[in-house]
Write a structure and sequence with these properties.
The protein is α+β, with helices and mostly antiparallel strands. It contains 2 helices and 13 strands, in the order H-E-E-E-E-E-E-E-E-E-H-E-E-E-E. It folds into 2 domains: 125 residues, no CATH class; 106 residues, no CATH class. Helices cover 22% and strands 39% of the residues. Strands 1, 2, 3, 4, 5, 6, 7, 8, 9 and 10 form a 10-stranded antiparallel β-sheet that branches. A 3-stranded antiparallel β-sheet has the order 11-12-13, covered by helices on one side. The termini are far apart.
Length: 277
């Protein structure tokens, strides 16, 4: 083999490899981009579905949305369970009916709590009745429609299958009766913070209820909140909430945009919530 033949062979081989690369690199890049887009869609969809689960179980009329300094915050009061309390009807026992004329420390239910194991007791949870989310009837004020922080709530089995016995220490006066006799067991507030500058969407829980909505991670951390990450690579997000009426469900609209390596996906999710207190 002469030097000329060797050079010609190398040149021809280089051309063949270059043509092969043209046919191989394109599909590989497409596969990588498609995989990246699928990962982004899966991440965004998982985060939005997690938010939707919390929204559907939120205390009626407790969702609020705010923005500050490029951070969008959505807060709600998470519920553990719900039941129907016994009122003072003509056939009811006065001792078992919930009294709305004065502080009452014990009452019974006609529809039981089903998501807690009885007997159940807690001083960190709350009971809420007829939260309509306006001044004087907002659970965030910790008056009138929700028991104060530190109230010891005990739920025990009653005499019948549908009856639970509820005691409050200290006793509390609920300001208004619910038309549907609904009483909710509230675990506490939950906040979702979307920070596009930091590229994160996080969930905060385990802090105390406040009339002022927290819209900063530092504020939530100082209040004792624990944080969990739902999504990274967040480029933009938008949360909106329409409260609805007794005849029409409330609607939360959630938009989340994720970007990674020049690939961008944007998902929109709408959640309907029954807001009849």
């Amino acid at each position: 083999m002469t030097l000329v033949e060797l050079v010609v062979t190398i040149a021809v081989g280089s051309v063949v490899v270059a043509f092969m690369a043209l046919f191989i690199v394109g599909p590989l890049n497409s596969y990588t981009a498609q995989t990246r887009r699928a990962d982004l869609v899966d991440e965004a969809d998982g985060a939005l579905r997690f938010m939707a689960r919390d929204l559907r179980s939120a205390l009626p009329n407790s969702v609020r949305v705010s923005s500050s300094g490029g951070v969008t915050a959505l807060e709600l009061l998470a519920t553990l369970d719900g039941a129907r309390y016994q009122d003072g009807g003509p056939l009811a026992s006065a001792a078992l009916a919930l009294d709305f004329t004065q502080a009452d420390g014990a009452f019974a239910t006609t529809v039981p709590f089903t998501q807690v194991t009885l007997p159940w007791t807690s001083s960190s949870a709350y009971l809420a009745i007829y939260n309509v989310g306006v001044t004087g009837a907002s659970a965030y004020d910790l008056t009138n429609v929700i028991t104060p922080a530190g109230t010891t709530i005990t739920i025990a089995a009653g005499a019948t299958a549908n009856q639970n016995l509820v005691t409050l220490s200290p006793a509390f006066k609920f300001a208004w009766a619910s038309p549907g006799h609904r009483v909710y067991l509230v675990s506490g507030p939950v906040t979702y913070l979307c920070d596009a500058a930091a590229g994160t969407l996080k969930r905060y829980s385990g802090y105390t209820i406040s009339s002022t909505q927290p819209v900063a991670a530092a504020t939530l951390t100082a209040a004792g909140a624990a944080a969990g990450s739902l999504a990274t690579d967040v480029a933009a997000c938008q949360f909106s909430y329409a409260s609805g009426t007794a005849q029409r469900n409330a609607l939360a609209t959630l938009t989340l945009q994720l970007t990674r390596s020049s690939e961008t996906v944007a998902l929109l999710h709408q959640v309907q919530m029954v807001n009849t207190p």
